[in-house]
Specification:
This protein is mostly helical. Helix content is about 75%, strand content about 0%. The longest helix has about 35 residues.
């Protein structure tokens, strides 16, 4: 977890600055998860919902974005084998 300076966190939360570093993205995702838990209550099932949503998000991002990028680069530069 990136432990950002409070002024950076405040600026991210208010939209004064855009996410421009990996730590900013991690912080925003973490805050979204906390908001969901706050709304639904801190229970085992809710924590599992959040972690499941993060895993599904990661897999979908890989499937739709990262894999396409890797396929393009393999076509441009050749396979590793």
């Amino acid at each position: 977890m990136p432990y950002l300076d409070q002024t950076v966190k405040d600026a991210l939360d208010s939209g004064l600055i855009k996410m421009s570093e990996p730590g900013h993205l991690t912080y925003k995702l973490y805050r979204l998860c906390l908001d969901y838990v706050s709304l639904k209550g801190k229970r085992f099932f809710v924590l599992c919902e959040v972690m499941g949503a993060l895993v599904c998000t990661m897999l979908e991002f890989y499937r739709r974005v990262a894999a396409n990028y890797e396929d393009k680069k393999r076509a441009e530069n050749g396979d590793v084998t």
